[in-house]
Amino acid sequence: MLTGWRDGGVAYTSLAGRIRLLALDGRVAAGTRLPAERELAAQLAVSRTTVTAAYAELREAGYLLSTRGSGSVVQLPFKVPVQTEFQPGFLDFSKATLPAIPGIVAAAQQSVEQLPTYLGDSGFDPVGIPALREALAERYTARGLPTESDQIMVTIGAQHAIALIARTVMARGDRALIENPTYPHALDSLKAAGARLVPVSVTSDGGWDELAIEQAIQRTSPSLGYLMPDNHNPTGVTMPVELKQKVLSLAARHGTTIIADETMGELGLGNDGRVLPFAAHGSAILVGSVGKTVWGGVRVGWIRADRTVIQRLVRARSAGDLGTPLLEQLIVLNLLRDFDSILDSRRAYLREGRARLERLLHERLPEWTVPHAGGGLTTWVNLGHAVSSQLALAARNEGLVIAAGPRFGVDGAFERFLRIPFSYSADETERGVDALVRAWATVGRHPFAQPAPDFASSVV
Ligand SMILES: Cc1ncc(COP(=O)(O)O)c(C=O)c1O
C-alpha cells in the first residue's frame, strides 16, 4: 500500500501524507495497528528517524494513537460526515450512467394499463413474469444463443443477480477469480459471500493477461469466476473470441463456474455493437440488466443459466427478497419490442460523449494518458502519478464526486488511475473536466487539506 509513497518532498512528510490518505480512504481501517517504527523503517529502507517523525506528525494531527507497549493504532481525528444526498450543483461522476431514454414514460404508462391482468395473482414473483422470460429468451436466441424461457430468471437489477449467484454457487472460503480492476460492487458481493479472491490483471492497452488467467484457473481451480468479457468496466476493453473460448474450456476442466456480467455487453462502440452472448462460446452463467442501457431507475436485471442452476437460484432467493416488482417488469417487456433501436441510439450518444471527453482531456490535461475506450461508458485514465485518492478528494472541493482508482482494485492498487465517465451531457462533461483541472492544480501542494464529506453512495 505504500508503493510509490515518495513524492519528492521531505521523506517523513511524504510518508505521513500517504498513511493519512490510506486512513481517509478507508483502505487502512481505523483501529489498524501500524508496524513498529523499526520494522517499517527496515521495510521501506529509510532511517528510523524518518518513520518516527512521520508517526509523530500523524499523532499530532490526530491520525494515530500510540500507547506504550501496544504500538500505534490508526484513528480518524474527526467523524467523516456521511451525506446521503448531494449538495445542489454537485456532479456525480462516481456513477457512469446515461439519462433515461425518452420512451420510458410511455412504456410505464402502457404498463399501468397492462397491470390489471396480473392483479388476481399474489404479486410475489421470484422468477419473473412468463412474458418477460419469454421475450428475454427470444432475444438471446436471436443474438445467437438458443434459449428457453425456463433458463431465465428476472432479478432486481444485475447487482442483485451477482450477489444471489455468489452466495448460492459458492461456499465460504472458496476461491473466486476476479478481474483487476473490476466493478466494485461485484467485488463487494464476492467478499460478502466469503470468497478468497484470485485477481487477474486487465489493462486498457493489453486487455486480459492471458497467461495470468490461465495460471490462475489451473493452479487455484477457483469455484467461481466473475468476468466482464465485453466492454469491461472500468477499462472498456473486450476479450478476443479465442480467449473467450479458451477461458471457458479451462473453466469447464477445472470445475469453475464463470459468471459473465453483460450489463454493458451490448455497448460496444467500435462496430455495430452486436456481439454473441458469452455463453455461446461455452458454459457460463450470464447476467444482464437494463440499468446501463435504459435507465438505472428501472431496477430490472436477469440471469440466463441452465435450468437446474435457475431452480437452485430461485430456491435460494427468498432469503434475501421475495421477487421483482411487476410494474418494472412490464416496463422492460414493453421496451424490449424495440430494443435494438434503443441500443443504437445509446451507442451513438456514447460515441459522441467519448469523443468529447477525449478531446477535452487532451486539451486541458495533456499529461494524462487517455486510452480510446472500445466500449462501455467510461475511460480508464492514467494520471502518471500515484495521486488518484488525493485528486478525488480535491475534486469534491470543486463540486465533483468521483471514485478514485483504488475503488476498482482488489488490493488498493490503481492509485495512478481514474475512471472518468463519458456518459454525461456536453455541459456536465465540461463542468466535470473543469473541476478536475482545478483539483489537479491543487494536488500535491496541499496534501493535508481537510477531507470533503464522504458520500454514502454507490460506484456504478
Ligand atoms: C458491470 C456492472 N454490473 C452490474 C451493475 C449493476 O447493475 P444494476 O443497476 O442492474 O444492478 C453495474 C452498474 O450499474 C455495472 O457497471
Protein model, in words:
In the C-terminal section; belongs to the class-I pyridoxal-phosphate-dependent aminotransferase family. InterPro entries: Aminotransferase_I/II_large (IPR004839), HTH_trans_reg/aminotransferase (IPR051446), PyrdxlP-dep_Trfase (IPR015424), PyrdxlP-dep_Trfase_major (IPR015421), Tscrpt_reg_HTH_GntR (IPR000524), WH-like_DNA-bd_sf (IPR036388), WH_DNA-bd_sf (IPR036390). The chain is α/β, with parallel strands linked by helices and 460 residues long. It folds into three domains: 64 residues, Winged helix-like DNA-binding domain superfamily/Winged helix DNA-binding domain (Arc Repressor Mutant, subunit A, Orthogonal Bundle); 130 residues, Aspartate Aminotransferase, domain 1, CATH 3.90.1150; 234 residues, Type I PLP-dependent aspartate aminotransferase-like (Major domain) (Aspartate Aminotransferase, domain 2), CATH 3.40.640.10. It contains 14 helices and 16 strands. The strands form five sheets. The chain has an eight-stranded mixed sheet with strand order 5-12-11-10-9-6-7-8, sandwiched between helices. A two-stranded antiparallel sheet has the order 1-2. It has a two-stranded parallel ribbon with strand order 3-16. β6, α7 and β7 form a beta-alpha-beta unit. The radius of gyration is 23 Å and the shape is globular. About 2% of the residues have low confidence. The site of pyridoxal-5'-phosphate has 15 residues, from α6.
